[in-house]
Task: structure prediction
Amino acid sequence: MASVYDLKPKFQNLLRPIATLLANKGITANQVTIAALVLSFLTGGLLLMFPDSKWALFLIPGVLFVRMALNAIDGMLAREFDMKSNLGSVLNELGDILSDTVLYLPFAYVSGFIPELIVLIVVLSIISETTGIIAVQIGSDRRYEGPMGKSDRAFIFGLTAILLGFGVPTEIWLIFLQYIVSFLLVLTIINRARKALTK
Result:
């Protein structure tokens, strides 16, 4: 199934000069991973404290983009500059799950969102990423299939934050969106499990 993740190679090509610069300055992949995690915690904390503030909502898409860039850069540093390590693998996987959790859970307090659905989305996100990781245990590659992978979630939440920041009425569309994201996450879990078992 199509996913924003499919754009990753082109995105990495754009970021490669930055990765090279950081490597030349002695910045490690693990430091970039930790920076992305710290940024996520700080942003999630701000949204939690100011859930209906326009500036907090507008902060979300920018941070999600920067986080995505940092995640791509730490991967390039690890692979292309011989910085792979067991610690890096642990930080990368846990960092993604923790970042998603602290960035998306605060939306439960934003007007228009249903808290129970946000919790469900976060839980399903954790399960989907765990499914991708489990694939490695049974001899497959790490699975990143969509239709609601990490990049897709970032796009959806980032765009929604922008719309809410501009004062677009939530009405019924936001409720439907949360149900759709939940459903697509279930499909993602099934898709990743199926791919892991067939490769």
